[in-house]
Amino acid sequence: MGQQYSRLRQRRNADRLRDLAPRRTSGHEEPLPNLDYQTLWNALNNVAAYIDRHGGNVTVIAVGGAVNTIHLRSRNATHDVDFFNNQLTVNDYELLIRGARDAVRRDRRLTEEWFNNRTIFFIPQERRNELTEETLLIHEVIFRAAGLTVLAAPWQYSFSCKVDRLSGGGLNSARSYDLDDAVQYIHRYLLQRCIRQVNKSTVRGWFVHYQLQWTHANETVIARVNAAYRAKFHVGYDVIV
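The line above is the sequence of DUF7582 domain-containing protein; the predicted structure tokens follow.
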């Protein structure tokens, strides 16, 4: 009986994942970044208000452009809020889906896919719960209102994903903003730990941990990150050594 319930819950959660994953269409691999800080803030407030009205309280973990636009303010806009949380219940998913749709009804600038959890499919299944627990422990809040809290994913995870994409890994090609994102993420990692530099062996360890492939191309990208970091923050040393 318990095993049957567990399998049923997994199937329902998988259905919720599909409901919140964006539907890709030909010619729309890189949507225009049209959601600025205020638009995103208002939209998240609308989701939070919907969840709160229905007696819920949900925490999600954001990655990518939403973190840069809302929290770091290093981008003017993004095209969606990409999130995960491996501990969400079926009811949590239902509230998020309905809240996101309610936000669209209130602001027609939002597309059907503005709030999605497609990123979960890029996280190895055996790492999803661990990454969720780590984020909840660090608890770096980028948005909070009654009903909804949005946390930033661990900086070393976000940094590793950016370096991986810049190196040609993964399914998506590198974006024009990826290098600056990587610099922002490693900067936040260093600030969080009150250190100035991190060993390259540590970075390679992140890749192993998150099951990303380290190649010769990564060495070139790390050199680009060091150069961009020196230029952006006016330091005379490499941050990855």
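Note on the example: The radius of gyration is 18 Å. The chain has two domains: 33-153, 157-233.
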